[in-house]
Design a protein that fits this description.
The complex is a heterodimer. Chain A is mainly α. Chain A has 18 helices and no strands. Classes of the chains: A mainly alpha, B alpha/beta.
Amino acid sequence: MANRPVLAPQLRRLRRELFSSPGDGVLSISLIVLIGLVAIGFLRWAFGQASWAVIQVNSTLFAVGRYPIEQQWRLWLLTALLAAATGLSWGLLRASPRPDRTGTLWPRHDRLAVVILVLGALWLPWALRLAALIQLRWWLVVALLVGCRWAAGRFAAVLPSALRRLVPLLWPALYLLGMVLISGGLGLVTVPPSEWGGLLLTLLAASFAILLCFPIGVMLALGRRSDLPLLRWGSVLYIEFIRGAPLITLLFLGQNILGFLLPGGLAPERIWRAAWVLTFFAAAYLAESVRSGLSAVPPGQFEAARSLGLSYGQTLQQVVLPQALRVALPAMVGQFISLLQDTTLLSLIGLLDLLGTARTVMANPAFLGKSAEVYLTLAVLFWCCCAALGLGSRALERRLDPHTIPSAT
Amino acid sequence: MQVRWPLVVLLTGLLGGCAADSGSGVQSQKMSTITQRGKLVCGVDGKLPGFSFVGSDGRYSGLDVDICKAMAASLFGDPEKVEFRDLNSSERFAALASGEVDMLSRNTTMTLSRDAAGGNGLSFAPTVFYDGQGVMTPAVSGIKTLKDLAGKPICVESGTTTELNLADRMRELGVAYTPLKFQTGDQTYSAYLGGRCVAVTSDRSQLAAKRSAFPSPAQHTLLPEVLSKEPLTPATTNADPAWADALRWTVYALMQAEELGITKANVAAKLSEAKGNKNLADLRRFLGVEGDFGRQLGLPSDFVVKVVGAVGNYGEIFDRNVGLGSALRLDRGINRQWKDGGLIYSPPFR
């Protein structure tokens, strides 16, 4: 009864939106029935007909490809470190450390996220029939993430601000450390890139290309607006050449023509070649997004900054680029997401990325006709990655929005 | 290739004596590159069970894969010193020509245009599997010959030579049929099992491979007619005859070992037998106890022992991957030794 005053307006709203006229009512009911039927059909398939053994048996292959088993502890270590860093950053971003808002250690959405995370950690490893030891590891990873989230939110306020400013620097450091952990070196056994695969390869190629295409794209955009003819025409030529060629053509060029041009052994590993092709390809498109952002900054801003005595570099760095990039951010994130999905083209040049691994698995006669299960799993994995990118970008947009309260940093 | 040669020569010069480290006098740029690198790079399909395939444990296996391992054992004495590279059918020749891979062991049919210097310019090793296109039908359908397929739907993978061969043969026979084309093998066989067509066509080895995973394999039969010849053959490029010879005779060694009854299990015993008995001249030469066959090829003198010790002889490779000891359960058929009426024939090791 206590809930009634809360629920009633919502019910009234539902009624207003779905059943305001007889025609609306018929439409709503038939749509609800249709959606219900599809949902029941899907659930019946997913829990009745579908055979998920293809995912259970091949889960390691999907995750890391042919990465040697005795070296997989390195990937676990990296996962744990990533979870810890995610927890720290999450806590610092979301749990407001300001003394006037003490009650927000766990905002409502965060509580929901934690519940989903914990349930996922409990259910997924079990559903995938992972070995007990591996299930335990996943629990520990999620526990570490939530623990770091709690610690960061709880103690952020007492942390000196200099230390808090260092936390974002964890990420580039972790990226470099991750590269060492994955590929070896510094005393670790080398694992050649030809043995990386699955989700590991997809994420690695995508993150590499996303991180590197950004600076290249900004430079190309600036070059295209430059007054120096050589720079301008060079940028225009590059951008138009890359945009005029399909990505798959460039990937084939990188895989098969580079061998002709460089003597044997000098060409980099093919995975790196593919990652660089992705980078250079994405940079051309990114340059155009950044250019649209630059065009959106009124010329008066530039002139005003110059007349205040700022140098060209300072003007760009302090005045023009921050505004331009904020405008271009949604478009850039769109490109990052499509870049992540473009990595599936790597399977066409014989690399065992997520899609390549899936095709290998589906070719296995033991799993004939299980393509629906495999593709659905792939779709969910890609959706999770893209959703994470989207969430991150929206958080970034909010932080960069000049109309909200400036953040405590 | 003309573009690359000056660089290649320069590099060979820089590498100096490494090219002839075995003291054989065999000049092979490719082999010195492979030795420098410390591993063989072998182009495979990667998605063909029985031939080259990544299992759930992440390991490559199959007949094509074992040929690569044999070559690695031949060069290095270690079958694991090989890196597999998945190639699709459109990029395989470019990958070989540009030196991305050292050799192809990728279910490639030997044809004139692929072999000719004016064509793809490949250099083919001995054929390791004589395949042919076949047609599979449900046993209950009562279809016995291609002519019985008149007016019936046939499932086929689009864009393959399989599709063209079927069209050619049916036109010759004057039989009208309905091709149902699919993009992938998985879709093709799912449609066949779903009853959308009464027959499915592909290489006979592939039909058998897929049939092995059907719910009830015994209810499907292969028609006796063979629509095409598909000699599946490893290949290198025309550019390096010495390297092509090394591959050719490594493959022949597998076949000769079967003929001589040398297996993975007894190769060590055979070797000590040959060492102890001077009268076994053929065996002594074959196993490198006397003579210099290995040196003439630019390989270690005991390469045959290493190869057979690593992967077994041709018959063992066949049985393990596609034969009765495997999920494919293919009969040796024309892939028997010549003494048993098959086509597997090694020239003499003399």
